[in-house]
Write a structure and sequence with these properties.
Blueprint (H helix, E strand, L loop, with lengths): L1 H5 L2 H18 L6 H12 L2 H8 L2 H17 L6 H14 L11
Helix pairs in contact: 2-3, 5-6
């Protein structure tokens, strides 16, 4: 299906190889459609989204603060103290300790 959709047999073989890895990690004896789906998902998940998924709660809150300032201003640039103020507000809202600005 992958090769037919994208025209790339190498990509299809790469997915099969990843599906075998998934199967072995799970201790299964045969590759099923679930293994293939998990292989596709892991292969095409971007590096950025993987970084966000693995980020700590405070890192995610800081990113949320940056996005909040971007949206409010309508441009993708922000002054650190504006972001920090939004970050501390998010922390307070969630009942978390907001680290001093030098530690963020």
């Amino acid at each position: 299906k992958v090769a037919a959709a994208s025209g790339d047999a190498r990509r299809a073989l790469d997915i099969c190889r990843h599906a075998l890895d998934v199967m072995e990690r799970e201790g299964a004896r045969e590759v099923g459609s679930g293994h293939i789906q998990r292989a596709i998902t892991s292969m095409y998940q971007s590096v950025k989204s993987k970084a966000v998924i693995k980020a700590t709660l405070y890192q995610k809150l800081f990113l949320k603060a940056v996005l909040g300032v971007f949206r409010r201003k309508g441009v993708e640039e922000a002054v650190y103290m504006e972001v920090y103020e939004v970050f501390t507000s998010l922390c307070q809202f969630l009942g978390l300790f907001a680290p001093p600005s030098l530690h963020v």
